[in-house]
Amino acid sequence: MGLTIIYNPCIILLFFAEPIMVKRDSLPKTLTVGQVADLLSVHPETVRRWDRTEKLVAIRVGNRGHRRYLMEEILKILNNKKKT
């Protein structure tokens, strides 16, 4: 059985090779780089740069480490953007 640990300062997720039953509502809503870029009206490379400079924290998923972002964090950014 393989174990992958994805670390985020807010969340630690453990994924096992065997299926684990989890309630769908308890999973975090995540977005891809492209989805975040569209929502924030920026280029996808800008989203990646924010991840590298830690302005935005990504959850890495899969063998290739694809970035996923929590919807809650993106909504916070959108709310702050509207206030300014």
Task: Annotate the secondary structure layout.
Elements: E1 3-8, E2 11-16, E3 30-31, H1 33-40, H2 44-52, E4 59-61, E5 66-70, H3 71-83
Antiparallel strand pairs: 1-2, 3-5, 4-5
- From the helix content, strand content and strand pairing, which structural class follows? alpha+beta
- How much helix is in the residues? 25-40%
Distance between the termini: 49 Å
- The total of helices stands at 3
Radius of gyration over alpha carbons? 14 Å
The residue ranges in which pLDDT falls below 50 over 5 or more consecutive positions are 1-20
Strand content: 25-35%
Look at the structure and give the CATH class of the domain at 29-84: Mainly Alpha
> What's the average pLDDT?
75
Number of strands: 5
What spatial form do the alpha-carbon principal axes imply? globular
- What would CATH call the architecture of the domain at 29-84? Orthogonal Bundle
The run of helices and strands is: EEEHHEEH
Strand order of the largest sheet: 3-5-4
- Biggest sheet record: 3 strands, antiparallel
- The CATH topology of the domain at 29-84 is what? Multidrug-efflux Transporter Regulator, Chain: A, Domain 2
